[in-house]
Amino acid sequence: MKNLSLILNAVLFAAVIFLYLFVFVIDSDEKSGTKTVRVANDSTLAAIAERGIVYINIDSVLNNYDMYFDIQADLQEKLKTSDAQLTSQQQKLQKEMEDFQYKIDRGLVTRAEAGELQQQLAQKEQALYQLQQNLQMQLAEEEAVAQRKVLNSIMEYLEKLEKSGIYQYQFVLGTTFGGNILYANEEMNITDVVSEGLNEEYRNAKEK
């Protein structure tokens, strides 16, 4: 989970740089049934029209994206469940090992019985190790899928904006603190528009 934002920052920059973008968000008014178009201010549009480049702050988009937080919460819950399962199995095995040692110290089992118990404990220890590996692999896979879902939703939204035919751009750059882009003119920043549009689509999808 700690790597999700960092990985997304790197992947997003490479993935969206060649996408076209139109700066608008269509909002549906459920009461009136009307649609309004929200665009950037005139100075921003003029600058973008001239340069053909816009950018979004990836950190800001993620920190304001409901889908991102929902996925994080889901992954955290799965991590807690896995930890609890492992802890329970570890405690059970530890108790069995202590019981085995108790019997050995007091001579309560024959050498044959001790050998059999020791073999059983070794098998259980190996099974616990395998369970740990399986859970780690499962969580890693789910985290990778979660990363792709967030990235894919952003890319699909940018593609929809591109196909709208209103304000066309040649490049969309992704900025992040300490990233490759050290300065970007604020007039080219369409982070708020993208964040609002993403959340609007995600909330509508959840309601359905």
What would your notes on this structure say?
The protein is mainly α. The chain has 2 domains: 4-69 and 158-207, no CATH class; 73-143. Helix content is 67%, strand content 10%. The protein is built from 6 helices and 4 strands; from the N terminus they run H-E-E-H-E-H-H-H-E-H. Strand 1 and strand 2 (35-39) form a beta hairpin. Helix 1 runs parallel beside helix 5 and helix 4 packs antiparallel against helix 5 (111-163). The longest helix has 53 residues, at 111-163. It is rod-shaped, with a radius of gyration of 27 Å. Mean pLDDT is 79; it is low at 1-39.
Short description:
The protein has 208 residues and is mostly helical. 67% of the residues lie in helices and 10% in strands.
List keywords for this structure.
208 residues, 67% helix, 4 strands, rod-shaped, mainly alpha, two-stranded antiparallel sheet, two-stranded parallel ribbon, disordered N terminus
